[in-house]
Specification:
Number of domains: 2
CATH superfamily of the largest domain: MFS general substrate transporter like domains
Distance between the termini: 38 Å
Largest sheet: 2 strands, antiparallel
Number of strands: 2
Strand order of the largest sheet: 1-2
Shape: globular
CATH topology of the largest domain: Growth Hormone, Chain: A
Order of helices and strands: EEHHHHHHHHHHHHHHHHHHHHH
CATH class of the largest domain: Mainly Alpha
Length: 543
């Protein structure tokens, strides 16, 4: 994966060279499955932007920050404030209704998330037909290159996105990113050779790698504190919408084998809309302030939050400290003693996300559903997608009330339980009569648990916990780890299955999920109800 069938996280599938192998007891897999991720990579949210909470007066719960770390004699990793400390607030100061407008610009940014999901999912239905058209239907190696090149490009793009966002700003980076996205889609749609198709997929991969970094970054920096969690999880919704759109776009293939070219070409449309939309979208006020462009920052704040909150937000930005006087952070600064602890948390969250087995569950979902009598691949994808939609909808509604950390712990706990159920359904003879039903139940519960936290939270949490001067590069580094681990897992997963058996592999995933619970409990900070500047001051007391 980066995750993901609507399936999510925006994720990615396994290396295609392994997709056509026949595994004992699981039948033949001729089509690539999508993984859950992300960016995660990997979940959908049915957050209705027109709902009452979004329309009504926004009130801000300004929580005092008494420090994010517990004091400790021994040096420890980044730790969350105790829950009683988080709740120790004398009063909540209500805000007047904001005259600013955030939702349209979040929607424009999420065109990048749609493209992310679409490029991940489009090859799933098209591979069989494009392989025949390009004369490689018997060459699984070249088919694997067509699928996996996207991952390689995404890795490059995720690292590049942070540097571009720091240098040119968030909105201009979106516009620059349209170049590889649109050209990649065009080359894929018009390819007459495998080489052209691979180049197109590489460019599209670079494009989605950049979007995987800057979409959550931009949304977190332009969103009001009180609804930042809900808006941040919308990113996952649109990734899922993109994947589902790719699934729907493939329906005419059976009657028109050349339709695959149109499928790839469709991606050009949202790319152009993204470039046009960003031309009218405000730049991140935090980036503008970082660059010393104070009047432009105030104008952006007025557009996003309303003129009545300009002074308040500017005060927060100034209190955050040295962004305007410190030199721009370099890549090596991420590994300094000042930042490494919090950066390592970001990388670890995406590593746990990938090692928790989301791709394995999605990869085997078709076989599992067939064992339970569900023969339709579309029906299987729809069932998994429905679980993601429902889970992320619940997560969106709880993100700003229950908090990111609690959702992560609940998510990984549920994933561990589901993996254990899946493992037992394949090995315990006493459960043999119910193995098909239990396998389906375990799969749906796993995807549901994933979408509650492991899918949407990491991409939301990372921009919140990173200091402004390292935010773009640190997010890019963490997402780079996501894509690299995604690629490695896709490369070696089937080898482990063939050597140890699927039940043992699932048991290993359950162990990883439990380790994830312990790591999150001890190292992840809770950020709900705090502005980015409050979080930055708490995590960087020297500022």
């Amino acid at each position: 994966m980066q995750a993901s069938t609507c399936v999510v996280k925006g994720g990615i599938g396994f290396g295609a060279q392994n997709r056509t192998k026949v595994l004992k007891g699981f039948g033949e897999f001729g089509k690539p499955s999508l993984g859950l991720g992300m960016t995660e990579r990997t979940a959908c949210s049915v957050l209705r932007l027109s709902s009452t909470p979004m329309k009504d007066t926004l009130t801000s719960a300004r929580l005092g920050v008494n420090g994010v770390f517990r004091s400790s004699v021994k040096p420890r990793s980044v730790k969350a404030q105790a829950s009683d400390d988080l709740e120790n607030v004398d009063s909540l100061v209500p805000q007047s209704k904001s005259s600013g407008t955030v939702l349209p610009y979040v929607g424009v940014a999420c065109l990048g998330a749609i493209l992310f999901g679409y490029h991940l999912g489009v090859v799933n239905g098209a591979l069989e037909y494009l392989s025949k058209d390009l004369g490689i239907s018997e060459n699984t190696v070249l088919q694997g290159w067509i699928v996996s090149t996207l991952l390689a490009g995404a890795t490059v793009g995720s690292f590049t996105g942070g540097a571009l966002a720091d240098k040119f700003g968030r909105t201009r980076t979106f516009q620059l990113d349209v170049i590889p996205l649109a050209i990649g889609a065009f080359l894929c749609a018009t390819a007459q050779s495998v080489q052209t198709m691979i180049i197109g997929r590489l460019l599209a991969g670079i494009g989605i790698g950049v979007t995987s970094a800057i979409v959550p970054l931009y949304i977190s920096e332009i969103s009001p504190t009180e609804i930042r969690g809900a808006l941040g999880s919308v990113n996952q919704l649109f990734i899922c919408i993109g994947i589902l759109a790719a699934l729907v776009a493939g329906l005419p293939l059976a009657g028109n084998p050349l339709w695959w070219r149109t499928m790839f070409g469709i991606a050009i449309v949202p790319s152009i809309l993204l470039a046009l939309g960003m031309a009218f979208s405000p730049e991140s006020p935090r980036w503008l302030f970082q660059q010393g462009k104070i009047p432009e920052a105030e104008k952006s704040i007025k557009t996003l939050f309303g003129k009545e909150r300009v002074a308040e937000v500017m005060q927060d930005l100034r209190a955050a400290g040295q962004g305007s006087v410190e030199p721009e952070a370099g890549w090596f600064d991420l590994f300094s003693s000042r930042y490494w602890k919090v950066v390592s948390v970001g990388a670890a969250l995406f590593l746990f996300q990938q090692l928790a087995g989301i791709n394995a569950v999605v990869y085997y979902s078709t076989s599992v559903f067939r064992s339970a009598g569900i023969a339709s691949d579309v029906a299987a994808s729809a069932l998994v997608g429905a679980a993601n939609v429902f889970g992320t909808a619940v997560a969106s509604s709880l993100m700003d009330s229950q908090g990111r950390k609690s959702l992560l712990i609940t998510s990984f706990s549920g994933m561990a339980t589901s993996m254990l159920l899946l493992s037992l359904s394949f090995t315990w003879k006493v459960l043999a009569p119910y193995s098909g039903t239990l396998a389906v139940l375990g799969t749906v519960l796993y995807v549901l648990s994933f979408s509650l936290g492991a899918g949407p939270v990491p991409a939301l949490l990372l921009p919140e916990i990173f200091a402004s001067r390292i935010r773009a590069k640190a997010v890019a580094l963490s997402l780079g780890m996501h894509w690299i681990s995604n690629f490695v897992i896709g490369l070696y997963f089937l080898s482990f299955v063939n050597k140890f058996g699927i039940s043992s592999v699932y048991l290993g995933f359950a162990t990883v999920c439990l380790l994830g619970v312990l790591y999150i409990a001890g190292n992840v900070v809770e950020t709900k109800g705090r502005s980015l500047e409050e979080i930055e001051r708490a995590l960087n007391p020297a500022i």
